Amino acid sequence: QFAWQQAQRVYHEGISFDEKEVLVPHNRTGVIQEYYYDIAYRPLREGGIITGMIQVVTDVTAHMHARRQLEESEAKLSLLSNTVPSMIYYLDQQQRYVSYNKTFQDWFNVDADEVIGQSVREFIGEQAYQQVAPHLAVAYAGQPERYELPAPSRLGTERWLDITYTPHHNEAGELLGVIVLASDISTQIQARKALEESSNSFQSAIEVAGLGT
Questions:
Q1: How far, in Å, CA of 20 to CA of 40, rounded?
Q2: What's the structural domain count of the chain?
Q3: pLDDT of 210
Q4: Which of 9, 37, 172, 203 has the most other CB atoms within 10 Å of its CB?
Q5: Mean confidence (pLDDT) of the chain
Q6: Do the domain assignments include residue 199?
Q7: At residue 96, what are phi and psi to the nearest 5 degrees?
Q8: 78 and 52 share one domain
Q9: What is the structure's pLDDT at 97?
């Protein structure tokens, strides 16, 4: 009804109309369902007289459903993410930050919305990005990825991170973004190095003892 009223205004008054994501319930498959459209109406004139109307209608229903699914996922992620002592953040299809948790804010010393919209490359810098880019490529190809890496200098402190990328798909299988979990494993790395050094020292002592006999 709304779209029809606007069409009448365009035709009779010559007023152009543009509206995004207009809800239009109608019957396509035998059942009335909700569909969303981007609608544009333009008057068609000849000699200053309106003789018709040009209309462009784009079905954006799938896009709306995907966005709602993403928003619901982000809400659930937000609830979970602030209860764990690790960085959790969400990247969109263009590797831009969509949301991140309190740990991300604390570690990078940023505000709640300071990084939103920035790309990974912009935020962590070119050198650090070149290190993570191959792993991101795996995730954006639709496969989970996990790896260990020294934290980027942008973090401002020396840490080792265990990073997991989880691709996020909609019901149609389309990639919407990537969920990232990054945990500080500096203590484990130090313990691992200490164990390796002890093992090497012990092996050297055995070899020296063997040579002396």
A1: 9
A2: 2
A3: 60
A4: 37
A5: 82
A6: no
A7: -100, 145
A8: no
A9: 96
